[in-house]
Amino acid sequence: MSKKKSMNVPSKKKKQNTFKMLFKIIKPIKWFALLGVICAAISTILYVVGPSILNEMMQVVGSADFNLKTVNTLGLILVAIYLCSMIASYFEGFIMSKVSTTITKDLRTKISKKINKLPLKYFDKTSYGDILSRVTNDVDTVGRTLNNSLTGLVTSVVTIIAIPIVMFTLSWQLTLISLIEIPLAFLVIFLIVKFNQKYYVQQQKSLGDLNGHIEEIYSSHNVVLSLIHI
What we know:
mainly alpha; 92% helix
């Protein structure tokens, strides 16, 4: 049972090597990727700060000494905050899309050069569909990870840190009640990640087998057609 599990789920050492390889791939454009991460953090911080300004504006509106000038000032500040958050989010999406496409192109180029140098015995032992899956699906997965997951992780971390700080400034009692749910949320996330990993590995393996099966069928079909025409 443990042997089967080790075949389906990558070991801790393999995961560490994967992350090291991923950071090595990003290294040529690390500063550009870092700029995208900073834009994501700025966008999230501004988006979280917005409700506190809105709360202050509502307090001014509901108070006895209502001041229209103060409301207008807070309204302009709120619009500026959300506008800057939107601009930062736009640049984050643009930068990370550029990073993911650059890395994807570089990976496919390196894989193409590697395939041309491999001995013929490798292709005898490995199905064409598995090779095709590595060049297309696996590389696309890396690109999607860089485009979505990296900035998504930064956004989540900044949100987890910033939201409690803003909530404590508004109402520490309600904040403590809300924080009780965080351990439960982390437990659910941990369980989902733990049981989902092996199915993701099986999905990629099945996808490679399916591509190989389809390729063999079409190749055999072309061979039969060639023999018929001969």
